[in-house]
Here is the input.
Amino acid sequence: MGPGGTATVGSSTINLTKTIVGAGMLAIPFVFKNDGVLVGIILTLLAAITSGFGLFVLARCSKVLTNPRTSSFFTLCMITYPSLSPLFDVAMIVQCFGVGLSYLVLIGDIFPSLFGGERNFWILASAIIVWPLCSLKKMDSLRYSSIVGLMALTYIFILVISMFVIKTMIEQDVTAERGPINWIRVYSWKGLLSSFSIVIFAYTGSMNIFSIINELEDNAMTEINKIINYSISISSFFFLSVGITGYLTYGSNTLGNILLNYDPNSPWIYIANFCLASMLILSFPLLFHPLRIAMNNLVVFFRMKYPAVVHPSASMENLADIENDDGPEDYYFNSSAASITATATRTSMASIVMNIEDDDIDVDDNLLASSIRTSDMDQVQDGSSEIMTLPERGEEEQHVSFPDSRFYIITFTLLPLMYLISLRLRSFAFVLSLVGATGSTSMSFTLPGLFGYKLIGSDSLAVGQMVSKRDMFYKKCSLLLTWFGIIVMILSLYVTMKYGAGN
Here is the structure.
């Protein structure tokens, strides 16, 4: 555990829960319409377990770093699949940029129905709240806006359950609005495939897990596991409660957004729509935070990969000095190596290092663990060697720099771009479904599985131990998670391309 963390388990749980629970909650009753109650519950729990395990794997992989507070998708890519690092960051950008755009479009659709006026006016007006929140550097600074967003979602949650009680238990004639209900039978097999991608999209929260780990005051795995378990449990409670009660209220007549089933003239629905619009505004910064980090990673990658293009007068020897003019150290790439090797810009030229935590080593192996500081671990893959060097005393791996100048340039370049595009978009449903099928599955399953399969257990190998049975189990599950993500992506894309374009 390194210095600098200020976030608590409570504030981190709020931010992660708010990242997961968003507008996707309103589509869960539609999932139950397609799948039936039993299958809907099973798929929701499956998504919860797999998404939660993906978050756990990412957290576990961060512990191979000397300073886990420097963890990110970029950092892990540098010690696993360095040449694919830009691809991973592009997947993050597509996910966050696409969902953020859809939020702005929805803001423009909802507020005019509440207060009148033009949609473009309300999209631009949202910048009064969105832009200051997006200018905050730490995710923990968003905890108060996340609390307000969760309060808005809680109101919608209570509304859906209350309407179920009123219409099914108090009112006499419920058949006029409610269609048939399937408890076990699947209503639509085509809908089963598409609705599962909706649930997967609803559970996506991995884009912010590293920021939470980096800012946590006590970032031990026990504390991180609490955050993940609490967040997944709370999210599952929201999703299952809204999904089941919303579906039982309207049956086969349930719409894609459960709020559309209710009387639009009701003051309670008016408040619910206001809560939804407010939640979208407050959720946007949580998506923009990882988007900005991914953009910075790309900038760093290309600055270091192509120094002659970025700095024509720079050489590999003085590139570190150029980077240090902007801020902390960056990673650069040794082009003379047989494979791309992530190398910290410092005189020792030590590669990204690995950390062995005391609580991961048996008592009998303490003496062995104390001698690993000068050990190296070679991983030979596809004929190339990637050396992960353990640190000398007092050393730690360098984090990706994010100087203030670049922070604000990226922020106030992306924000106007997203707002400009949102002013011209009228419907983003199809593009959003593509984003969910690709970005969400990549962030939740494929990438965590790839990282976990390669990194979990490497700390044991570094001290000359066999990989424990527990870590071998995690490695195998990580591999299964990767294939699970690939299969879900293929099926989701197939359904989206075949049926989504016409919707």
